[in-house]
Amino acid sequence: MDRLRALLPSARGDRIRWGLAALLAVTILLVPNLAQVAENAFPDSVSARFAIFLASQALVLGLWATSFNLMLGYTGMVSFAHAAYYGIGAYTVAIIAHNYHQNAVYGLLAAPLVAGAFGFVTGLIALRAVRLYFSLLTLAISQLLFTIAFEWYDFTGGDNGIHNLVIPDWLSDQTTIYYFIAAVTALCLLLMFIVVRSPFGAALLAIRENRQRASSVGLSVKAYELAIYTIAGLFAGVAGGLYAIYDLQAYPQLLYWTTNAQPVVIALLGGTGSFLGPVLGAVIYTYLQNFVGKNYPNEFDIVLGAIVLGVVLIAPGGFVSLPDFFLRLRSRFRRRPEDERVELVESAGQAMAALEVSRAVASSAVQVDPGAAEPAGPDQRATLLKVNGLSKSFGGLVAVRDVSLNVKQGDRHAIIGPNGAGKSTLFNLITGRLKPSAGSVEFDGRTITGWADYRIARAGIGRAFQITNIFPRLSVRQNVQYSMLAYRKVTIRPFGFADRIFREEASDLLESVGLGRYAELAAGQLSHGDQRALELAISIALGSKLLLLDEPTAGMSPYETQKAMELVRRLATERGLTLLFCEHDMNVVFGTAQTVTVMHLGRVLTEGSPQQVRNNPDVQRIYLGELEASA
Amino acid sequence: MFRLTRLFAVGIAGTLLAVACGGGGTNTTTSFKGTKNVGLSTPITGQSAAYGKAIQAAALLWQDDINAKGGVNGYKIEVKITDDGTDVAKAADNTRRMILEDHAVAMIGAVLSSQCQAAMPIAHQNHIVYVAATCNDYRNTTSPDYRIPEYVSVVPNTYMEATAAGIDAGKNTSLKKWYILSPDYSFGRAETPAFVAALKKTNPSVQILNSPSEWYVPLTTFNFQNVIPKIQAAQPDAIYSNIFAATQTAFINGALQAQPDFFTKYHFVTLSSIDDFNALPDKYPTGIRVYERAPFFAIQGNSIKDYVKRFRDKNNFYPSDWAVMDYDALSIWAAAANKAGSFDTDKVLKNLAGQSFDTLRGKVTIRKEDLQGVVPVWVGTTTRDPQYPFVILKDIVNPPGSELVLPLNRVKQMQDGQCPKNDLANCP
Amino acid sequence: MDVGNLVLFFLAGLSIAAVLFIVTAGLSLVFGALRVINMAHGSLYMIGAFVSWFVIVHLANALFGFWAALLVAPLITAIIGAVVEIFVLKPVYGKEHLLQLLGTYALTLIFAGLVRKVFGADVRSISAPAALNSSVPIFGHGFSVYQLFLIAVAVLVAAGLYLLLNRTGLGRNIRAAISDPQLLSTTGVNVTRLFTIVFMIGTALAGLGGVLVSPTSSVDPGMDSNVLINAFAISVIGGLGSLVGSLVGAVIVGLILSFGFAYPPTAHYAIAFVFAAMVIVLTIRPWGLFGRAEQ
Predict the structure, then answer these.
(1) Which fold has domain A383-460+546-631?
(2) Min CA distance, B424 vs chain C (Å)?
(3) pTM of the prediction?
(4) Which of C9, C133, C226 is nearest residue B229 as measured by Cβ atoms?
């Protein structure tokens, strides 16, 4: 809990951060003037030209590290190939200027395209793996690219690289280059800022928080990862191109795997949790490198190592987390009422009990499916989900064997069976989390067998999980809001403010499920019961045609159970939602379901109305009897 | 427990910072007009840190010497030493900082050719003399891509030293089948063809066993267990190598490990330096043919003897080749600046071009056309001498620089861009 | 190329693989149990090499020096490992992978600086004991006894690790940690101590690798990053956390380096082949040959 609180910035900390950002912007504008003033004051120890050069360097490193942080901070990907795209950007400028004798600025236009293209192609390969394997695969790719740069003597200049680039005359003055770099950097930062605040950025945050949940609300995780990997590579290409323009060279070491430590360290120093953190980190890093390198050349590595270690152990949030760090430190000594309130907010687990069923059902967040809610008897309704001879085996173990199942439109269909009957596996097969060994699944007239999970989600099959499955570091409102964005395919939009779309709808829905007052709290801070309510709210918000509920009432009190099932029941009848759920609580099953399927040892034992199932002697023997015996 | 760990971490970090920041001293100045800085960017950390250690020591000794003699043009000289961590970008950054912030009046060159090539444009932009004492790619003075008018070389370039080695090797006509081994980077690619050319010219009947695409081995090879069997399988009479520093140590150690009589079974010719001798104090093979840029024990004259003595007294180790050449670089620049009576780059360059200087290596002339020092190379056979803790050379030949330098017409062709890909082999 | 040469290249490849296996086994074991990639693994390998140089040159006489170093260096790296685990890793368990990577990366910088301060920046070398310092004829070529010794040690280490993991209570706990660390903590095992022990075993293997490689190569300040990249490649090809994977991966990389370099058309790119192999294996099996799919 302590950790989650540390991740959610306080409002006061936020104000300080905006102040810092403004200060940073003003300072960047004034660098050449300030440098001149400093040089006039201390002509022996300060060189304005050098200070301006360092500032150019800091800006480019900041741009590079910010592009890295698109992956690290916003999507949770650790790439070890980011130096390669930076290097490719630098080489693009160098090769166009040197080999083809063209204007270096044209090279700068080509750099993001070339780096982005490399990023896309190598990303396709790298993203076959996840997490650490992804990181190590990027490492291998970056070493291959390094080898090409190192060995291709005719084109890249081999290990020497390309030096002494010619740049246009109008750019050759140090101050002009600086303003040029500042302008390009500002433009890139603005574009990146738009992206991270957009619905597309919301999808990235959702993926960072919970890949599995992100898929189940309809996000193609790999596609989004590939997109951001390419975008990050593209901006790294701009940074690399700018590097070649101010340092007039490109050489293979830029691509070497150890160079990847630079953006990581810079992003960490500044703070990966904040958009401008890496820029601030770059300023600190450049200063440190210069100061320590100049005064303690023999100890550079030890000092840098000690600083990085100190940040990791003491302030993993980086420099931008310091305001919050100090605020917390202060509030420990001087408790003020407002600080206290901020710290002590934690939900009480009362959401379910406060559920307003009618309001939730009427909530505008729920997508209306006209014509679906016709009042008809179960027999006349069309089949929505048709499972045909579905089997799944893990090695030698058959978990689901030849299961066939029809779920009618608008039905409330329960699946029951003892533990190990194969219910969860069946759900995973239907939602695409697992690929069936045999058999087919048809949904809404389409065969969806073997589809990826996010496609099935988009086709209209929603799911609530047995184990609470939310986006812990997003706010409660964002959990609902971003899920809606994802499901309605708004997340392909890389512009606009994600937090402003569907805001009302999400708030309304949250009010109705009793989470209204916790809307701005990190979802991970909710109590367990309230997280279940949130989970349900996400599922409702999607407006799926078919909702799969895996033990929806596990861990709820009888009263909460009653409320939750009432909500589900009414959604089904009034909004045309079809339900498929598995549940251990027989009261819930027989109180809610219209159709019941009994599974045993991976097979379907019988199917029928609750009454038929209850009276089936086989069911009584293997299942109900067993339950009663154990109860 | 957790608090304690944090406290400990803070303590460790603090201690490390304190250790790192300790030290440093001050000098008092008297009767100088002021202080002028000379910049030196060298690897103190990273892969080539061993170079930097000797270079740093030589520069500090020179600084004491020159100031004892009254400095340059009445100014006290301070050598600003910064660490480049064997990194290209840092070498460039250091050069820029020392020129702009420390107002360095001259720069002494870096170790790697790519580092020098990264720093040269900066020296050129600011019009500062750049004296190379270690990096020695011949293209630095000849290629239109790299060449700058401020670049002066006091080290035998790749062409010169490889030619010296090739002529010497060709004289042993009993060696017919050669195996070539070179590091896969531009130093090797510049030096090796020059050696092969000189070898074939001196002894046209030699046969090179491996094809040029096999000459170069990656420097990142962590040991040579894969290279040595390949040489054994090729069964050469002789091996030529210009692998150096840690990789040379790895190669020799690995070869001795694989086959204790490796260096007697195959005649071995290699580039070497005192550093490399030192790395294998007891094991450096004797009887192999070595070429060196500035082995102090082989150099004649009193100034080198005096230098070695003072260097040892101060540092407690022998000066490496780099320690000799960096000292020379500083001395030559100071002599020219004194002669010019100014630190102005144009005036200093004018007093360098075509002039001769007294150095630790004897009289050295800076050729007017390309500012390449006409410096000698030492070739000898390794042997043990109880006086030294490492091998030294016997049967030394010491071809003067005038026999080794690139002919001027070739230099001109290259400088004019008539040799495609800046490669000597492609000249008309 | 005749059979003799092929055998020579094969043995050379195996002897390269031997040291790489020992180093990688440590890296992989630590990853398997602790879910931490130890970037400082190469530094401990370097420290092992420098300690062995120090022991041989300054403490023991040359006759027993190597054998003494073989014991002392892994012991010292294990102790350093314990300190690192307790004071650097424990505070960041359960946080993002990145913090663990960066914490150990910071250590690589600090260790590089400290090694230079303690042992100096010079390149060093050590010799194998006289008994191993000879060659035996194999198909007409001399082949180093020491390299055969390396292969034998690697086999012993592999067998020892197998026995440790499969025949002892400690090994059972380690295997449990590898398959499910969360479950393990509920079974009453002292996980805190277990992690420290596993990390010490890992760093001891790094130190052992450093001692073993030194007589065939040099002891120099750059050896940390060179071995690390190879160990990464092997552990990824074989599958992180798998002992068999480390063994197979090391043999693959050893043979690639040996045969890849042996013939003209490919000699130039032998190093790139290792990374190409890594890309190919991971593209087909994203969790390595013997690794387990991660969710």
Answers:
(1) Rossmann fold (3.40.50)
(2) 22
(3) 0.88
(4) C9
